[in-house]
Known about the structure:
Elements: H1 10-18, E1 25-34, E2 41-42, E3 46-47, E4 51-52, E5 54-56, E6 62-67, H2 69-76, E7 93-97, E8 100-103, H3 114-117, H4 122-135, H5 139-144, H6 147-150, E9 153-154, E10 162-163, E11 167-174, E12 176-185, H7 199-205, H8 212-215, E13 221-232, E14 236-243, H9 244-248, H10 255-274, E15 280-282, E16 285-289, E17 295-298, E18 304-307, H11 312-326, E19 338-339, H12 342-357, H13 361-375
Parallel strand pairs: 7-19
Antiparallel strand pairs: 1-14, 1-16, 1-17, 2-13, 3-4, 5-6, 6-11, 7-8, 9-10, 11-14, 12-13, 15-16, 17-18
Helix pairs in contact: 1-10, 10-11
Amino acid sequence: MSTAETTVTTELLDQWASDPNGPVALHLKQKLLPVEGEGGVIFPPTYADIGYNIDTLSDGTKMATIDSVGSRANRMEPMFKQADYAALVPQIEIEYAQDKRVSILEVGHRLGDALIRSSDLKGEAQAAFKAMVDSGNAQLIAKLAPTSLVFGVWDSRDTQAKLPRLVQSVIRAWDVDVLTRAAQYNPPIDYSALDVFSDEEKAKQEGDPKSPLAKRGFVHVPSGAAPGGIVCRNGIEQDITINLIALRRLQAEKLEGTAKLRRYLLGLSLVAATAPLDGFLRQGCLLVPATIASWQVINRDGQRSKASTLTHDLAKSYATAKAAAFSVGASRVGDKAVKFNKDLAKADAAVTKDKAAGGKGKKDRKAKAESTENTGDEATE
């Protein structure tokens, strides 16, 4: 591995956005620690049917997913709502009820989400996807929802436009031991002694977590062995990759527009990727950096060089300049918010029902699963 160092400048970033012989990626690997310190217990996300997502490697090592690719994207994307970054992207809200709105930056499938197809934005989104499918022109998507390009999108229910992530991040823990926990609920008083219910009802329902009195918190309820977190014996690591090859495959309608488009998206990618870690992932999982890590520039031949000058301040400055040159798309918030259209939603839902009735429901479910896998659109745990 090379110990060379690359001084990252605005001019070099411009070159990377266009040079077909330039680096293939930028990568950061950073060690993390629980706030409790080395050996502290942390809680991974739990998933339906499997609980913690823990894989056993061929040598017996157990690796746990602490924050998946999709979850990381869903955590990073809303940062562009913050005042320091809001001007970098169009701010679009969908108004779905009186004084109730949701930002497109919080929509799981991004521009390909059912909410977008169920709003007055449907036609524009469809046209943007079609431009990408028909001619490779990503400019309309960048004007409408550029983070769909940064974090990936698959319009699997309509045009089938499928765009890979420019920024990919994941947190994993290595060589883990799984713990369990148990609990006991004790009511503060004896309600049966106060004739709220009889001693017979108390005896019958106490200890059964599914009993009506237990569910309402009136009797003693033990809780058996439940997931109790994990201990990591070989560290927790965050990996962040910026895919420069995927960036350079994006085009605009005209050659001069392509350069501006790529530099703009590179700026957004750098801002998202270099932002300080928000390590509060869920209850029982608060992580902080264990080391000061530097970005690596990975060349086509596999050689790496350190890019210690690639900082968040540089990324923000670059993104601001390139956003101005690209001319960020129009925002639609407040009185100009996009309206939810119930008729469009009903029509879209009816298509799903018709397919299910025709025996294609299984195929639809498979498409949904693949969409989650490829664009990482599972909800933030």
